[in-house]
Design goal:
alpha+beta, five-stranded antiparallel sheet, two-stranded antiparallel ribbon, 31% helix, globular
Amino acid sequence: MEEYTLPSNSEGKYSEKGSTFSALAFPVNDVAEVKAKLIQLKEQFPDAIHICYGYRIREGGRLDEFATDAGEPKGSSGLPILNALKRNQIVDAVIFVVRYFGGIKLGISGLINAYGSAAKEALANANFNKWVQLV
């Protein structure tokens, strides 16, 4: 199965019931880079209620996948983001979704839809390169 990666950053947005979900997709090479980007985003968006993310990174012949709900109900945010990467066979990439709460709770199914839709939009706005193993 062919895999793909992002040559550059991309963004997507989704809104529902006053809440906004801003997805930011980045190419990354390792987990340290993901953590550095998270710190940067927390500084850039200090009033965001949640910054959830998922990544897939090829390291040393294995695939490292991770998703976090960052305080949202379990499985409602990080997993839909990770699944967007998986559906598109994207590796060496992370998608962060920054949420601003609009005052109305969305429920778990609403959160799954919102986070997944924002991530999908970021990938719809992205360019892809075929992933190639470099020595």
